[in-house]
Amino acid sequence: MASDNVNFKLKARELRCLIGPNGAGKSTFFKCISGLHTPTEGRVFMRGQETTGWHPHEIASLGVGIKTQVPNVMDALSVFENIWMAARRFMPTRAANTKTSDIIDRLRLGPIARAELGRLAHGERQRVELGLVAVADPWLVLLDEPAAGMSAEDVARMSEIIHELTRTAAGVIVEHDMQFIRSIATTVTVFHQGAVLMEDHVDRVMSDPVVRNVYLGKNA
Amino acid sequence: MSRTAGKGDVAALIFGVALMLIMPMLISTYTLTVLVIYGMLGLSLGLIWGFGGILCFGQAAFFGLGAYTYAVAAINIGESTLPMLLSILVPALFAALLGAMMFCGRLTDVYLGVITLVVTLILFKFTNSTAGPQYKIGEARLGGFNGIPGFHTLNVPGQPNAYIWGEPLYYVCAVALLVVFFFVTWLLRTPFGRIAVGIRENETRVSLMGYDVRARKTALFAIGAGIAGLAVGLFANWAEIVTPGLFSLGQSAEIIIWCIVGGLGTRFGPILGAAGLAYLKFMLGQQTMVDNTLITGIILVMFVLFLPKGIVPAVTSLWTVSFAKRTPKGRRHRSSARRRGGAHG
């Protein structure tokens, strides 16, 4: 599903959630700003610089951390190696080693640091992927459904990590889990049929009759 | 990791040198030389396919290109040092250009295979059709399907008349293989090598981390071609003739089979697969009862069915498993078995 007529602005260090029914254009929008898609029309700016049509690696090099909807990790490698590789992009080897150990401690991944990623549980892999986004000290994080398919305990841990991340970075998070959204965001943008339907505080969005109609279903 | 790696390196070096000294007692050095060269060629594909995830059907293209480079340069220069360097550089540059084209076009898997295969075919057809006297580079006639014989062979650098052949050539090749093996070992430990493995595992993730995957794949592809070039520089000196047969599809397929049989994702596997299968082919070549390619085909099918990971990974895991079983309660034994298992690859 395409998205059109999206006018979206994010302030520095602002955290924003994108919600909307399936096919509303959230993921297309997400892919356009992260460089995975090139928009046919329209322009993308980051910190005043136009990034329309850039490759993902160029956008990531600006200091943007990206986590896609499907887990994108390196399964045959260890947790340490996964996170180290993300750190090494922005610092020399020795600094990357220290930084990786720091993040592993902070995310409490210590006992599984040497384990092969492919053998870990879904929640742990999601956490590792967030870790390799966090290790690069991004000023903007783009997360597509970070809490998808996770247990309540994992979700709580995840929102803790995101809170910590957004102390220094702005964030755009595509998410379905309403509890999770309440726990992390204040402002929510609602997508519907490829356009922005509404943009407001999470509580007002939740109680808005139009939003409840299109997104939550009439009886919700 | 780095502590055990240091021990593993010393062990590998001792093992390699011992093998280099013992093997001539079992097999004639003339045959051994070409087995060592094939081992290096196997390693070149083992590096880019096993660690970089780039399946190249055209490793023979670099092999042939390097051979012709050496022969043409040797005829024109009359000394072997510069031609040897050129036989490494020309395939590497060619691979860099070809790689840049393929990887920037975001070609993957099958298309990559098709293009590398077609490039090999084009070079094969072209060299076959260069019989006329107009196909000349400097003094050297390309010679069509007859190839180029009679070029200056390997000499001690700076002394064109001190030829290296026979037994000394074997030792030169064996040492070169050891050097390449440790070069690959070192490369895989550098950030470049580690990130190359990351690209094999998940290209999207590595590019989302901010790495230019295209440039890195191109560089690795060129390094692999350079190693193939070194192997063929030595091969030309062993065979003392280069022919279009070096570009043949059979040659390309064989290199892939070596890697599969020996074990992908290991450094030792492709060398073992190459030398082992080439020796088997040599033995089978001495009889006329069964067809050579038939046997190679059967071996490939058997491996794909029963040992899809190849010899080296299978032996490694067998080693680990058997040690763990023999002493189910002995913690010390089990951990030592695991360590030994982990040191391979």
Strand content range of chain A = 15-25%
Query: Which geometry of chain B do the CA atoms define?
Result: globular
End-to-end C-alpha gap of chain A: 25 Å
Number of helices of chain B: 14
Q: Give the largest interface pair and sizes.
A: A-B, 25 and 17 residues
Helix percent of chain B reads over 70%
- Biggest sheet descriptor of chain A: 6 strands, mixed
Percentage of residues in helical conformation of chain A:
25-40%
Using the CA coordinates, give the radius of gyration of chain B: 21 Å
**Mean pLDDT figure of chain B:** 88
Looking at the overall shape, the CATH architecture of one domain in chain A is 3-Layer(aba) Sandwich
pLDDT averaged residue by residue of chain A: 86
Q: What's the CATH H-level superfamily name of one domain in chain A?
A: P-loop containing nucleotide triphosphate hydrolases
Report the end-to-end length of chain B measured between terminal Cα atoms: 13 Å
User: Secondary-structure element sequence of chain A?
Assistant: EHEEHEHHHEHEHEEHH
In terms of per-residue confidence, which ranges of chain B show pLDDT below 50 for 5 or more consecutive residues?
A: 327-345
Write the layout of secondary structure elements.
The complex is a heterodimer of chains A (220) and B (345).
Chain A: E1 15-19, H1 26-34, E2 45-46, E3 49-50, H2 56-61, E4 64-67, H3 79-88, H4 93-106, H5 122-134, E5 140-144, H6 152-165, E6 170-174, H7 178-184, E7 187-192, E8 195-201, H8 202-207, H9 209-216
Parallel strand pairs in A: 1-6, 1-7, 4-5, 5-6
Antiparallel strand pairs in A: 2-3, 7-8
Helix pairs in contact in A: 3-4, 3-5, 5-6
Chain B: H1 2-26, H2 29-51, H3 59-77, H4 81-104, H5 109-128, E1 136-137, E2 140-141, E3 148-149, H6 167-189, H7 191-201, H8 203-208, H9 213-239, E4 241-242, H10 249-262, H11 268-284, H12 292-306, H13 311-326, H14 331-343
